[in-house]
Amino acid sequence: MTVRSGQLSNSRFEQLIGCALFLGCLLLCWSCKLSLDLGSTGRPEAGVDGESDPGESDPGESDPEEAEPQLCDKDQDLHRANTPNCGGNDCDDDNDLVNPGMIELCGNDLDDDCDGLVDPILEMSGEARRLTYTQALSEAAVLAFDGQGYGVAWQDKRLGDQHIYFVRLDERGQKLHDELIITDAQREEIHALQPSLVWTGPSFALAWIDYDGDEVSIVFTTLSPEGERITDDVRLIGPLDGFSTLRRPVLLWTGSELGLFWKRNDEIEPGIYFQRLDVRGELLGTPERISGESNDWHTRHSVVWTGTGYGVTYSQHIDSETNHIYFSFLSSSGEIEVSPLLLFDGASYDASPALAWNGELFALSWMQYVPETLRDYWIYFVEFDGSGQFAYSPVQVTEYPGDVGAVSLVWNGQEYGLAFDR
Fold it and tell me: For 380-395, how does the pLDDT look when each residue is reduced to its tens digit (9 = 90+)?
Protein backbone atom coordinates (compact mmCIF):
# COMPACT_ATOMS: atom_id res chain seq x y z
CA MET A 1 0.00 0.00 0.00
CA THR A 2 1.46 3.36 -1.06
CA VAL A 3 0.84 6.39 1.18
CA ARG A 4 1.68 9.50 -0.81
CA SER A 5 1.31 11.91 2.13
CA GLY A 6 3.50 9.74 4.37
CA GLN A 7 0.72 9.03 6.84
CA LEU A 8 -2.78 7.57 6.52
CA SER A 9 -5.37 7.01 9.21
CA ASN A 10 -8.72 5.67 8.00
CA SER A 11 -11.87 4.02 9.30
CA ARG A 12 -13.96 2.22 6.70
CA PHE A 13 -17.48 0.79 6.77
CA GLU A 14 -18.56 -1.62 4.10
CA GLN A 15 -22.18 -2.63 3.70
CA LEU A 16 -22.56 -5.33 1.09
CA ILE A 17 -25.98 -6.04 -0.36
CA GLY A 18 -26.07 -9.22 -2.40
CA CYS A 19 -29.00 -9.81 -4.73
CA ALA A 20 -30.23 -12.66 -6.93
CA LEU A 21 -32.11 -14.76 -4.43
CA PHE A 22 -31.57 -12.31 -1.60
CA LEU A 23 -30.24 -8.94 -0.51
CA GLY A 24 -27.96 -9.00 2.50
CA CYS A 25 -25.93 -6.46 4.44
CA LEU A 26 -22.43 -6.95 5.77
CA LEU A 27 -20.71 -4.36 7.92
CA LEU A 28 -16.96 -4.22 7.62
CA CYS A 29 -14.67 -1.81 9.44
CA TRP A 30 -11.29 -1.20 7.94
CA SER A 31 -8.87 0.78 10.02
CA CYS A 32 -5.34 1.52 8.91
CA LYS A 33 -2.76 3.48 10.87
CA LEU A 34 0.30 3.69 8.69
CA SER A 35 3.41 5.85 8.82
CA LEU A 36 6.30 6.05 6.37
CA ASP A 37 9.67 7.71 6.88
CA LEU A 38 10.06 8.90 3.31
CA GLY A 39 13.43 10.51 3.99
CA SER A 40 15.25 7.37 5.16
CA THR A 41 16.77 4.87 2.74
CA GLY A 42 18.38 2.62 5.36
CA ARG A 43 21.90 3.62 4.23
CA PRO A 44 24.18 6.46 5.47
CA GLU A 45 24.36 9.54 3.31
CA ALA A 46 27.51 10.18 1.32
CA GLY A 47 30.07 12.39 3.06
CA VAL A 48 28.79 11.58 6.57
CA ASP A 49 30.72 9.66 9.26
CA GLY A 50 33.66 8.76 7.04
CA GLU A 51 31.64 7.73 3.97
CA SER A 52 33.43 8.08 0.64
CA ASP A 53 33.14 11.30 -1.25
CA PRO A 54 30.78 11.59 -4.22
CA GLY A 55 32.36 10.19 -7.32
CA GLU A 56 34.40 7.49 -5.52
CA SER A 57 33.32 3.94 -6.32
CA ASP A 58 32.82 1.10 -3.87
CA PRO A 59 34.92 -1.86 -5.03
CA GLY A 60 32.46 -4.29 -3.43
CA GLU A 61 29.47 -2.97 -5.32
CA SER A 62 28.88 -3.84 -9.00
CA ASP A 63 26.99 -1.99 -11.69
CA PRO A 64 23.32 -3.12 -11.73
CA GLU A 65 23.40 -3.21 -15.53
CA GLU A 66 26.21 -5.80 -15.43
CA ALA A 67 24.32 -8.31 -13.24
CA GLU A 68 23.15 -11.45 -15.04
CA PRO A 69 19.41 -11.18 -15.96
CA GLN A 70 18.67 -14.72 -14.72
CA LEU A 71 20.07 -13.78 -11.30
CA CYS A 72 18.08 -10.53 -11.06
CA ASP A 73 14.67 -11.94 -12.04
CA LYS A 74 14.62 -15.49 -10.70
CA ASP A 75 10.81 -15.61 -10.53
CA GLN A 76 10.56 -14.31 -14.13
CA ASP A 77 7.88 -11.70 -13.33
CA LEU A 78 9.72 -9.03 -15.39
CA HIS A 79 10.73 -7.08 -12.23
CA ARG A 80 14.41 -6.99 -11.14
CA ALA A 81 15.29 -7.87 -7.55
CA ASN A 82 15.84 -4.96 -5.14
CA THR A 83 19.40 -6.02 -4.28
CA PRO A 84 22.46 -3.73 -4.67
CA ASN A 85 23.74 -5.82 -7.60
CA CYS A 86 20.41 -5.84 -9.46
CA GLY A 87 19.11 -2.35 -8.64
CA GLY A 88 15.45 -3.33 -9.12
CA ASN A 89 12.27 -2.94 -7.06
CA ASP A 90 11.04 -6.54 -6.63
CA CYS A 91 11.00 -7.17 -2.86
CA ASP A 92 10.58 -10.97 -3.23
CA ASP A 93 12.32 -12.34 -6.31
CA ASP A 94 11.32 -15.91 -5.39
CA ASN A 95 7.57 -15.18 -5.75
CA ASP A 96 6.20 -14.09 -9.12
CA LEU A 97 2.98 -12.90 -7.41
CA VAL A 98 4.90 -10.26 -5.43
CA ASN A 99 6.20 -7.22 -7.32
CA PRO A 100 5.39 -3.50 -7.75
CA GLY A 101 2.89 -4.33 -10.50
CA MET A 102 0.58 -6.33 -8.19
CA ILE A 103 -2.42 -5.11 -6.18
CA GLU A 104 -2.24 -5.41 -2.37
CA LEU A 105 -4.38 -8.30 -1.08
CA CYS A 106 -5.67 -8.47 2.48
CA GLY A 107 -4.89 -11.27 4.91
CA ASN A 108 -2.10 -13.13 3.08
CA ASP A 109 0.83 -11.76 5.16
CA LEU A 110 2.57 -10.55 1.99
CA ASP A 111 3.69 -7.16 0.75
CA ASP A 112 2.09 -7.89 -2.63
CA ASP A 113 2.94 -4.54 -4.25
CA CYS A 114 6.41 -4.10 -2.64
CA ASP A 115 5.67 -0.75 -1.01
CA GLY A 116 7.02 -1.83 2.39
CA LEU A 117 3.58 -2.33 3.99
CA VAL A 118 1.82 -5.65 4.64
CA ASP A 119 -1.97 -6.12 4.80
CA PRO A 120 -4.33 -3.36 5.98
CA ILE A 121 -6.27 -4.47 9.07
CA LEU A 122 -9.78 -5.79 8.33
CA GLU A 123 -12.28 -6.31 11.15
CA MET A 124 -15.85 -7.57 10.79
CA SER A 125 -18.32 -5.46 12.78
CA GLY A 126 -21.54 -7.21 11.81
CA GLU A 127 -23.12 -10.18 10.08
CA ALA A 128 -24.89 -10.37 6.72
CA ARG A 129 -28.58 -9.48 6.96
CA ARG A 130 -31.01 -10.81 4.39
CA LEU A 131 -33.46 -8.13 3.20
CA THR A 132 -35.66 -9.96 0.69
CA TYR A 133 -37.22 -13.41 0.97
CA THR A 134 -38.47 -14.27 -2.52
CA GLN A 135 -37.35 -16.73 -5.18
CA ALA A 136 -37.57 -13.99 -7.81
CA LEU A 137 -34.61 -12.04 -9.11
CA SER A 138 -33.69 -8.99 -7.00
CA GLU A 139 -30.82 -6.90 -8.36
CA ALA A 140 -29.31 -3.45 -9.12
CA ALA A 141 -29.49 -2.33 -5.46
CA VAL A 142 -28.59 1.31 -4.70
CA LEU A 143 -27.99 3.01 -1.33
CA ALA A 144 -28.60 6.55 -0.07
CA PHE A 145 -27.65 7.77 3.42
CA ASP A 146 -30.31 10.02 5.03
CA GLY A 147 -28.37 11.19 8.09
CA GLN A 148 -29.57 8.40 10.37
CA GLY A 149 -29.86 5.29 8.22
CA TYR A 150 -30.02 4.11 4.62
CA GLY A 151 -32.62 4.04 1.89
CA VAL A 152 -32.28 1.08 -0.49
CA ALA A 153 -33.96 0.74 -3.89
CA TRP A 154 -33.70 -2.17 -6.33
CA GLN A 155 -35.43 -3.85 -9.27
CA ASP A 156 -37.46 -6.97 -8.45
CA LYS A 157 -39.51 -9.57 -10.40
CA ARG A 158 -41.46 -11.14 -7.53
CA LEU A 159 -44.78 -10.13 -9.18
CA GLY A 160 -43.74 -11.45 -12.59
CA ASP A 161 -43.19 -8.06 -14.19
CA GLN A 162 -40.16 -6.03 -13.13
CA HIS A 163 -40.86 -3.32 -10.52
CA ILE A 164 -38.86 -0.89 -8.38
CA TYR A 165 -38.89 -1.56 -4.61
CA PHE A 166 -37.73 0.50 -1.62
CA VAL A 167 -36.88 -0.15 2.04
CA ARG A 168 -35.25 1.92 4.77
CA LEU A 169 -32.53 0.55 7.09
CA ASP A 170 -31.07 1.80 10.33
CA GLU A 171 -27.33 2.47 10.60
CA ARG A 172 -26.66 -1.21 11.38
CA GLY A 173 -28.62 -2.51 8.38
CA GLN A 174 -31.85 -3.53 10.18
CA LYS A 175 -35.07 -3.02 8.18
CA LEU A 176 -37.35 -0.30 9.60
CA HIS A 177 -40.40 -1.40 7.58
CA ASP A 178 -41.52 -3.94 4.98
CA GLU A 179 -40.32 -3.64 1.39
CA LEU A 180 -42.50 -1.20 -0.58
CA ILE A 181 -43.33 -1.41 -4.28
CA ILE A 182 -42.82 2.02 -5.89
CA THR A 183 -43.90 1.45 -9.49
CA ASP A 184 -47.56 0.88 -10.43
CA ALA A 185 -48.46 -2.66 -9.38
CA GLN A 186 -51.69 -2.52 -11.42
CA ARG A 187 -50.00 -1.66 -14.70
CA GLU A 188 -49.64 -4.55 -17.13
CA GLU A 189 -46.31 -5.57 -18.64
CA ILE A 190 -44.25 -3.07 -16.70
CA HIS A 191 -40.48 -3.25 -17.07
CA ALA A 192 -38.77 -0.84 -14.64
CA LEU A 193 -35.06 -1.10 -13.94
CA GLN A 194 -31.77 0.62 -13.01
CA PRO A 195 -32.99 2.78 -10.09
CA SER A 196 -31.01 5.76 -8.77
CA LEU A 197 -31.67 7.05 -5.24
CA VAL A 198 -30.50 10.21 -3.44
CA TRP A 199 -31.40 11.99 -0.18
CA THR A 200 -32.31 15.69 -0.59
CA GLY A 201 -32.80 16.61 3.09
CA PRO A 202 -36.54 16.17 3.64
CA SER A 203 -37.07 13.32 1.16
CA PHE A 204 -35.59 10.72 -1.19
CA ALA A 205 -35.46 11.43 -4.93
CA LEU A 206 -35.76 8.33 -7.11
CA ALA A 207 -35.30 7.89 -10.87
CA TRP A 208 -35.41 4.78 -13.03
CA ILE A 209 -35.69 3.47 -16.60
CA ASP A 210 -39.26 2.67 -17.66
CA TYR A 211 -40.13 0.57 -20.71
CA ASP A 212 -43.63 0.85 -22.16
CA GLY A 213 -43.92 -1.31 -25.25
CA ASP A 214 -41.28 -0.16 -27.73
CA GLU A 215 -40.73 3.17 -25.94
CA VAL A 216 -38.33 3.97 -23.12
CA SER A 217 -38.27 6.90 -20.65
CA ILE A 218 -36.52 8.09 -17.50
CA VAL A 219 -39.13 8.50 -14.74
CA PHE A 220 -38.78 10.42 -11.45
CA THR A 221 -40.60 10.58 -8.11
CA THR A 222 -39.95 11.65 -4.50
CA LEU A 223 -40.47 9.56 -1.34
CA SER A 224 -40.78 10.35 2.36
CA PRO A 225 -38.26 8.73 4.76
CA GLU A 226 -40.86 6.00 5.30
CA GLY A 227 -41.14 5.36 1.55
CA GLU A 228 -44.49 7.09 0.97
CA ARG A 229 -44.91 8.94 -2.33
CA ILE A 230 -44.71 12.73 -2.15
CA THR A 231 -45.02 13.49 -5.87
CA ASP A 232 -46.57 11.68 -8.82
CA ASP A 233 -44.32 10.12 -11.45
CA VAL A 234 -42.60 12.69 -13.68
CA ARG A 235 -41.32 11.69 -17.12
CA LEU A 236 -37.93 13.45 -17.30
CA ILE A 237 -36.47 12.14 -20.56
CA GLY A 238 -38.30 10.48 -23.44
CA PRO A 239 -40.17 8.60 -24.54
CA LEU A 240 -37.70 7.44 -27.19
CA ASP A 241 -38.05 4.51 -29.55
CA GLY A 242 -35.94 1.40 -29.16
CA PHE A 243 -35.05 -1.02 -26.39
CA SER A 244 -32.05 0.21 -24.30
CA THR A 245 -31.95 3.65 -25.97
CA LEU A 246 -31.81 5.23 -22.48
CA ARG A 247 -29.62 3.62 -19.81
CA ARG A 248 -28.39 4.05 -16.24
CA PRO A 249 -29.82 7.26 -14.75
CA VAL A 250 -27.77 8.74 -11.87
CA LEU A 251 -29.23 11.41 -9.54
CA LEU A 252 -27.13 13.83 -7.45
CA TRP A 253 -28.23 16.43 -4.86
CA THR A 254 -26.16 19.64 -4.68
CA GLY A 255 -27.91 21.18 -1.68
CA SER A 256 -30.15 23.35 -3.84
CA GLU A 257 -30.95 21.30 -6.96
CA LEU A 258 -30.62 17.86 -8.54
CA GLY A 259 -28.25 16.77 -11.28
CA LEU A 260 -29.27 13.88 -13.53
CA PHE A 261 -26.78 11.91 -15.62
CA TRP A 262 -27.70 9.16 -18.07
CA LYS A 263 -26.44 7.33 -21.15
CA ARG A 264 -28.12 7.53 -24.53
CA ASN A 265 -27.54 4.34 -26.46
CA ASP A 266 -28.38 4.92 -30.12
CA GLU A 267 -26.69 5.76 -33.42
CA ILE A 268 -28.10 9.32 -33.56
CA GLU A 269 -26.72 11.02 -30.41
CA PRO A 270 -24.89 8.43 -28.26
CA GLY A 271 -23.03 9.47 -25.12
CA ILE A 272 -23.42 10.51 -21.47
CA TYR A 273 -25.79 13.43 -20.78
CA PHE A 274 -26.42 15.85 -17.90
CA GLN A 275 -29.61 17.69 -16.89
CA ARG A 276 -30.33 20.04 -13.95
CA LEU A 277 -33.61 19.51 -12.00
CA ASP A 278 -35.40 21.14 -9.11
CA VAL A 279 -36.37 19.07 -6.06
CA ARG A 280 -39.76 18.10 -7.59
CA GLY A 281 -38.30 17.03 -10.93
CA GLU A 282 -38.89 20.17 -13.01
CA LEU A 283 -36.25 20.62 -15.74
CA LEU A 284 -33.79 23.51 -15.30
CA GLY A 285 -32.17 24.44 -18.61
CA THR A 286 -31.55 21.93 -21.40
CA PRO A 287 -29.68 18.60 -21.50
CA GLU A 288 -25.90 18.79 -21.98
CA ARG A 289 -23.97 16.05 -23.75
CA ILE A 290 -20.74 15.56 -21.78
CA SER A 291 -19.16 12.65 -23.67
CA GLY A 292 -19.37 11.25 -27.15
CA GLU A 293 -18.69 7.62 -26.31
CA SER A 294 -19.43 4.82 -28.73
CA ASN A 295 -22.71 2.95 -28.68
CA ASP A 296 -21.65 0.13 -26.37
CA TRP A 297 -23.54 -1.72 -23.62
CA HIS A 298 -20.42 -2.23 -21.53
CA THR A 299 -19.96 1.49 -20.80
CA ARG A 300 -21.09 2.44 -17.25
CA HIS A 301 -20.85 5.70 -15.33
CA SER A 302 -20.91 6.85 -11.69
CA VAL A 303 -21.09 10.47 -10.50
CA VAL A 304 -20.67 12.36 -7.18
CA TRP A 305 -21.20 15.99 -6.11
CA THR A 306 -18.23 17.51 -4.25
CA GLY A 307 -19.72 20.86 -3.25
CA THR A 308 -18.23 22.67 -6.24
CA GLY A 309 -18.81 20.29 -9.12
CA TYR A 310 -19.33 16.72 -10.28
CA GLY A 311 -16.77 13.92 -10.26
CA VAL A 312 -17.54 11.41 -13.02
CA THR A 313 -16.17 7.92 -13.64
CA TYR A 314 -17.11 5.66 -16.50
CA SER A 315 -15.82 2.42 -18.00
CA GLN A 316 -15.06 2.10 -21.69
CA HIS A 317 -15.21 -1.29 -23.38
CA ILE A 318 -12.08 -1.96 -25.46
CA ASP A 319 -12.36 -5.67 -26.31
CA SER A 320 -13.39 -8.98 -24.72
CA GLU A 321 -10.42 -8.89 -22.32
CA THR A 322 -9.92 -5.15 -21.75
CA ASN A 323 -12.16 -2.54 -20.14
CA HIS A 324 -10.82 0.84 -18.98
CA ILE A 325 -12.10 3.19 -16.23
CA TYR A 326 -11.81 6.97 -16.71
CA PHE A 327 -12.29 9.94 -14.34
CA SER A 328 -13.39 13.49 -15.21
CA PHE A 329 -14.59 16.58 -13.31
CA LEU A 330 -17.47 18.90 -14.33
CA SER A 331 -18.65 22.29 -13.08
CA SER A 332 -22.14 22.63 -11.57
CA SER A 333 -23.45 23.60 -15.01
CA GLY A 334 -21.89 20.54 -16.69
CA GLU A 335 -18.79 22.13 -18.24
CA ILE A 336 -15.72 19.82 -18.34
CA GLU A 337 -13.00 21.18 -16.03
CA VAL A 338 -10.77 18.07 -15.85
CA SER A 339 -10.50 16.10 -19.09
CA PRO A 340 -10.98 12.31 -18.82
CA LEU A 341 -8.07 10.55 -17.06
CA LEU A 342 -7.33 6.83 -17.44
CA LEU A 343 -7.19 5.47 -13.86
CA PHE A 344 -5.81 1.97 -14.54
CA ASP A 345 -3.33 1.68 -17.36
CA GLY A 346 -3.18 -1.97 -18.39
CA ALA A 347 -4.90 -4.84 -20.14
CA SER A 348 -7.20 -5.76 -17.23
CA TYR A 349 -10.99 -5.83 -17.48
CA ASP A 350 -12.16 -3.20 -14.94
CA ALA A 351 -15.90 -2.54 -14.92
CA SER A 352 -18.92 -1.15 -13.07
CA PRO A 353 -17.18 1.80 -11.31
CA ALA A 354 -18.89 3.24 -8.22
CA LEU A 355 -17.67 6.66 -7.05
CA ALA A 356 -17.98 8.44 -3.66
CA TRP A 357 -16.62 11.70 -2.16
CA ASN A 358 -15.58 11.99 1.51
CA GLY A 359 -14.90 15.73 1.56
CA GLU A 360 -11.21 15.40 0.73
CA LEU A 361 -10.75 12.41 -1.56
CA PHE A 362 -12.70 10.47 -4.14
CA ALA A 363 -13.29 6.77 -3.41
CA LEU A 364 -13.82 4.17 -6.11
CA SER A 365 -15.06 0.60 -5.93
CA TRP A 366 -15.24 -1.55 -9.04
CA MET A 367 -15.22 -5.08 -10.44
CA GLN A 368 -12.15 -6.71 -11.97
CA TYR A 369 -12.67 -9.68 -14.26
CA VAL A 370 -11.07 -13.03 -13.41
CA PRO A 371 -9.90 -14.39 -16.81
CA GLU A 372 -9.41 -17.95 -15.53
CA THR A 373 -13.11 -18.43 -14.67
CA LEU A 374 -14.54 -16.64 -17.75
CA ARG A 375 -17.34 -15.11 -15.65
CA ASP A 376 -16.25 -14.15 -12.11
CA TYR A 377 -15.10 -10.82 -10.69
CA TRP A 378 -13.33 -9.46 -7.62
CA ILE A 379 -14.42 -6.20 -5.97
CA TYR A 380 -11.68 -3.59 -5.37
CA PHE A 381 -11.53 -0.27 -3.50
CA VAL A 382 -9.21 2.77 -3.62
CA GLU A 383 -9.16 6.50 -2.80
CA PHE A 384 -7.63 9.24 -5.00
CA ASP A 385 -7.44 13.02 -5.35
CA GLY A 386 -8.89 15.29 -8.04
CA SER A 387 -5.88 14.76 -10.30
CA GLY A 388 -6.33 10.97 -10.25
CA GLN A 389 -3.39 10.25 -7.88
CA PHE A 390 -4.05 7.20 -5.65
CA ALA A 391 -3.74 7.58 -1.86
CA TYR A 392 -2.54 3.94 -1.71
CA SER A 393 -2.56 0.83 -3.86
CA PRO A 394 -6.03 -0.58 -4.69
CA VAL A 395 -7.31 -3.08 -2.09
CA GLN A 396 -9.18 -6.29 -2.94
CA VAL A 397 -12.42 -6.25 -0.89
CA THR A 398 -14.03 -9.61 -1.68
CA GLU A 399 -12.20 -12.68 -0.43
CA TYR A 400 -13.43 -14.95 -3.21
CA PRO A 401 -14.31 -14.17 -6.85
CA GLY A 402 -17.95 -14.40 -7.91
CA ASP A 403 -20.54 -13.50 -10.54
CA VAL A 404 -20.93 -9.88 -9.41
CA GLY A 405 -22.55 -6.74 -10.82
CA ALA A 406 -24.11 -3.31 -10.15
CA VAL A 407 -21.66 -1.90 -7.58
CA SER A 408 -22.87 1.13 -5.53
CA LEU A 409 -20.84 3.18 -3.00
CA VAL A 410 -21.82 5.95 -0.52
CA TRP A 411 -20.09 7.97 2.25
CA ASN A 412 -22.01 8.63 5.51
CA GLY A 413 -19.62 11.15 7.07
CA GLN A 414 -17.45 8.56 8.81
CA GLU A 415 -17.59 5.35 6.80
CA TYR A 416 -18.44 3.94 3.36
CA GLY A 417 -21.47 1.85 2.46
CA LEU A 418 -20.96 -0.56 -0.46
CA ALA A 419 -23.70 -2.51 -2.27
CA PHE A 420 -23.54 -5.02 -5.11
CA ASP A 421 -25.61 -7.91 -6.43
CA ARG A 422 -24.23 -11.43 -6.57
Answer: 999 999 989 999 989 8
